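This section describes the prediction task in plain terms. A model, or a person checking by hand, is given the sequence of a single protein chain and must write out its three-dimensional structure as a string of tokens. No templates, partner chains or ligands are provided. The sample shown here is typical of the held-out split.
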Amino acid sequence: MAANHIQPQIEAFMKDNPPDIFIPDIVFTWSESIAKTLRIPRLIFKPLSIFYFCMVEANKSIDDPKQEAFLLPKDTNLSLGYVKFHESVINSANNSDGVIVNTFFEFEEEYTQLYEKIIGFKAWLIGPTSLMVQKTMGGTICMNNDEHECFSFLSSKEQNSVLYISFGSMSLLSDEQLFEIASGIEASGHQFLWVVHSKNKRKDDDITKEEEKEEELKWLPKVFEEKMMKEKRGMIIKGWAPQVSILNHSSMGGFLTQCGWNAALETIGAGVPMITMPLFSDHYFNEKFITEVQGFGVQVEEGGEWKLSPYDPNKKV
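The expected answer:
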């Protein structure tokens, strides 16, 4: 993991430039030793929900594995490597002077109180960090919004009428899943803005941009993109998109998301309801929190898994 590979460089820099306090991310699982060497306080930054960590602790007390169904979807398999990494991340706050969490008290009040009782020290809540960026920039959510073509599309739509679809930069769906989503969007009749990240399937230096585009979008239903553009009903963004600005646009009516915590907080800050489709890691816990605890989202499919079988997309959209 990259966080482990840069350990020598970070430790050398800190020894040459001793800080007053060390605030590492939870993935810097080696941070305790250097803090002890320099005799400085260590606060762990946690970019995940407090609910997630509470559920992990609750999971440890479950004797019957079958009872874990309320935490993880059926047939979810975790690799041994992930489990070991997960344990090291959870334990990274051991012997720290506190944790800093990207969340806010009103959102996770009961779980914050429980979490502090479990860990035995203070949790400082500083989120949503996306709103902090907005405030720092003087109310401008994202620079150069006008330069992105999606805003001319969104500005032509009525208030709360567009479904935003994005599964984050780390989640790559199969062609079969993407096809099913496209088919559901088309059948629903709703307007949409869909962010699709490149899979980088081919590394051929001789491939042209046109050929690369055709390769990336070959999973689309026949003439899907052309039909949506002609009807002015939808738009596909290939690559990065200014998500915070999109979510805060007046045309936003909902967000189909993988339930990454950053995306969840950005959506909450914008006041947009969610349609949840978790893919890995903390996504499943976040979905439970969003749909069952807080109640401002609905699941795409109970259990969180896609199958190539008919379903009614109209109910979910």
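For orientation: The radius of gyration is 22 Å.
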